[in-house]
Structures are given as C-alpha cells and as structure tokens.
Amino acid sequence: MGMTASLRAPVQSSVEKWAWAAVVANTVIVLTGGLVRLTGSGLGCPTWPRCTDNSFVPHRELGSHGVIEFGNRMLTYVLVAVVVGTFIAVRRWSGSTREQRRLALVIALGVPFQAVIGGISVLTDLNPWVVSLHLILSMLLVATSILLVFRVRGVASGGLVRAATGRVISMYVVLWVVVYLGTVVTGSGPHAGDAKAPRNGLDPHVMSHVHAASVYVLVVLTALLCFELRKFPEGRLALLLLGVELAQGTIGFVQYFTDLPIALVAAHLVGGAVLIATGTFVLLAVVSSSLAPGTGETSRPARPTRSR
C-alpha cells in the first residue's frame, strides 16, 4: 500500500507504519540537529525565522555553516510532513480511539513548537540551557510517538505480577535523569555549536562522572528488571533495553577518553533517542501487562472502536 493510499483508506498496519515513521523522523532530527552543533554551525543562520535579517536562505558569505544550519531547518519541514501524515492516517482510520487521535495531534503540534524552541536557542546565541531543552523536547516527541505505536498495535498483555510495575517505573525515571544529565554534560563541554556560544559554567569532568553514576544506577535497575521478568515475554524486551544501555554506555566512555570525536558524539545522540524509545516501550509493555486481569494468562485488548 502506497503512502497516499494509506491516507485515503488506512488500515491498522498502515497507521502503525505512519506512527513508526514519526519515531524515525524525530530521531533523525536529533541527529541532524546534533551535527549542526558538532560542526560549529549552530549560528550558521544568525537569526530566526529568517536565516539573515534580509533573507530566508543563506548567502555565500555564511559559508558551509550557513548551508548546514539551513539544511537542518529544511529537514524540519520533512518532519512536519511525516507527523501531519501520521495525524491524518490516525484520524481517517475507522478503528482509531480518542486517545490515539489526541496523541497524533500532540505529536503534530509538538514539531512546530520544537522549531520555535530551536529559534529561541539561535536568538539567545545557543544558550546551553535552551539547547538542552530543545533536545529534551525531541526525546519527548520520540517517547510520545512510541506510545502511539503501542496503542495502535494493541500489544498483548501477559498478566505480570504488579511488583514489576514499581521496578519499571523507577527504571524509567532514572533513564530520563540519565538523558537530562547528558545534556548538562554537553552544555559544559567543547561542542557548543559556535566558537562564541556560552557554556553553562559547570565542570565538564565532574558532570561527566555524575552522568556516569546515573548510568550505573540505570543499568543495575534494568538488570534487576531482567531477572524479575525472566519467565515472562516482556523479559526479552528488558534484555534488549539492557543491551542498548550497555552499547550507549560504551560509546559514552570511549568518546570521553578519546576527546569527544564528532562521529562518536553523533552516535551517542542517536543512541539516546533509541534508549528513550526502547525504555518507553518496555515501560508500556510491563505496565500494560501488570494491569491485565489474572496472572500468567494472556489477555488481548478488545479491538478499538471509533469514538467521537
């Protein structure tokens, strides 16, 4: 089924594909935004919403930095097209629920709001706290898109013991702490996005150790969750999350001891989005399963009905 046909008469499988497209697009914009900063192109277009005071497009004097920053702005329109397509697909799907339509609307509205935050970061000369907020909002959009995927799929519930719920919630809270501390480390480090951009004034070595400590806590909590879920299907998801954490942690340590090469920092950024996506899916799977009636019996949610 083509993309146009999937919007004219969407079925569950095509709506799920649109939701996954929103996850991927929001992850890609994290990467491209990171590359803008890593190449020192954060002020390649020195103002917003125009690229310069007199033009929406970069001129020759801005050089490659202007092209890179402008290219990232243009990719935002691709992201807008994807999330609007997702919203239309959900709205036109006969099996959609009110919650699913609201999630799709939040994602669609979140992208232009995110663009405004990006503009504010330019207007404040890449203030590290605003840049940090810019990244966190992208991660929130990734998490919300995963929630939409989960709701559209109607994932099976396995009747887990409720004790697993507390463990997975604790893990998820720490996961977000890890990601936020990562943005604080970035705000104190060398990749500011422009040679004249301010830093947050914190010691990058101290903050790196604080960030690493939060990673240790996250890995321990996830390992305990894997043990607790070892006899349930959700245990495989927890193991996948643990693998993502270990890979992301390895990249983080290597980049720290190799003076933050651009390629590894970019990989670490994408890894952060993958970490949020995987952790969100694990949270939803375990909470949904633990709230299912009975223990050990598989129950599937009823087919969604259209509610207006």
Automatic annotation (TrEMBL):
Disulfide bond among keywords: yes
Q: How does it sit in the membrane?
A: Multi-pass membrane protein
Q: Which GO terms describe its biological process?
A: heme A biosynthetic process
Oxidoreductase listed as a keyword:
yes
Any GO CC annotation of this UniProt entry: membrane
Q: Where in the cell is it found?
A: Membrane
Q: Give the Gene Ontology MF terms in alphabetical order.
A: metal ion binding; oxidoreductase activity
Main localisation, per the record? membrane
Per the record, the pathway is: Porphyrin-containing compound metabolism
Print the keywords alphabetically.
Cell membrane, Disulfide bond, Heme biosynthesis, Iron, Membrane, Metal-binding, Oxidoreductase, Transmembrane, Transmembrane helix
Q: Which residues form a coiled coil?
A: none
Q: What is this protein called?
A: Heme A synthase
